[in-house]
Amino acid sequence: xxxxxxxxxxxxxxxxxxxxxxxxxxxxxxxxxxxxxxxxxxxxxxxxxxxxxxxxxxxxxxxxxxxxxxxxxxxxxxxxxxxxxxxxxxxxxxxxxxxxxxxxxxxxxxxxxxxxxxxxxxxxxxxxxxxxxxxxxxxxxxxxxxxxxxxxxxxxxxxxxxxxxxxxxxxxxxxxxxxxxxxxxxxxxxxxxxxxxxxxxxxxx
Length: 205
Hints:
A hairpin with a 4-residue loop joins strand 5 and strand 6 (about 95-110). Helices cover about 0% and strands about 60% of the residues. It is an all-beta fold. The model has no long low-confidence stretch (mean pLDDT about 90). The chain has one helix spanning about 25-30; strands at about 1-5, 35-40, 45-55, 70-75, 85-90, 95-110, 115-125, 135-150, 150-165, 175-190, 195-205. Strands 1-2-3-4-5-6-7-8-9-10-11 form an 11-stranded antiparallel sheet, with no helix packed on it.
């Protein structure tokens, strides 16, 4: 228990550990950390389960008038680096009940090529409306990483984030948030523990 990194998504807060230097939009707009407690059950070397009781959506200290939120994870990881993970979040936010689903896979196609895919969908009760009225948002991404040499890696990425009702991302003019991003990166290991990372990234929306 305590404050710990989020169980959601294929990327973490520490950029060094992610395939690309910048983070996915789905990572930027979902929790990086959680405050609460988690229980992990390792069913086998490959299959594990997690149950989280946390203090809301990236919220450290203030429960407010809400009950704690719940999170789950089902992860299947093979020794070759293949990983499949399904993660959820269910909790009461200021606007209403939020239910979030996160699914991702990372697969090493060969010793030189790795592929990744991610898909998120969230629903939230519409503020000041009938309890069954809900807004939704979606996001997806495709990633690849190429090991050009022991010291040189290249990455590519395409993603889209769709939040038409501004549930997570508020725009200045209230218009739907609909953004597509492409990026290409080169990572060079200059010495042990020292990397030089470059990335070109473009946004369209």
